[in-house]
Amino acid sequence: MWTYERRLQYPVNIKQTNADLALVIISQFGGPDGELAASQRYLSQRYTMPYREVAGLLTDIGTEASKMFQN
Fold first, then answer.
1. What is the reported pLDDT for 43?
2. Are 34 and 69 in contact (CB under 8 A)?
3. For residue 23, what are the contacts with CB-CB under 8 A and spacing of at least 6?
4. Structure-model confidence comparison of residues 70 and 18, the more confident one
5. CB contact at 8 A, 40 and 29
6. Distance from C-alpha of 20 to C-alpha of 24, rounded to nearest angstrom
7. 29-32 long-range CB contacts below 8 Å, 24 or more apart?
8. CB–CB of 62/39 below 8 Å?
9. C-alpha distances in Å from residue 62, one per residue of 3, 26, 40
10. pLDDT of 19
11. More confident residue, 3 or 18
12. Which of 10, 7, 13, 68 is nearest to 39 (CA)?
């Protein structure tokens, strides 16, 4: 149906890691298993999806997941 290419949109060169900052960023997304994190993953993946039909599906799933977070 489609092929998945694991690549970044922009090159990333991490010179120094910061675990404390990573924890803050993850907590801002509602935690690693939170609904907000899930909806953000779906919505951000839609921009790199080469097939418009699947991108539309990711948009639908992401918006539904964000509605669950609001309730």
1. 83
2. yes
3. none
4. 18
5. yes
6. 6
7. 30/69
8. yes
9. 21, 18, 7
10. 93
11. 18
12. 68
Whole-angstrom Cα distance, residue 58 to residue 46?
6
> Which residue has tokens 């948009």?
59
- pLDDT of amino acid 47: 85
> What are the tokens at 53?
């039909």
Burial class of residue 36, CB neighbours in 10 A (0-12, 13-18, 19+): middle
Residue 34's CB is within 10 A of a number of other CB atoms, namely 15
Q: How far out from the chain centre does Cα 19 lie?
A: 19
pLDDT in tens, 25-69: 777 666 667 777 778 788 888 888 888 888 888 888 888 776 665
What the block records as the tokens of 40 is 């953000």
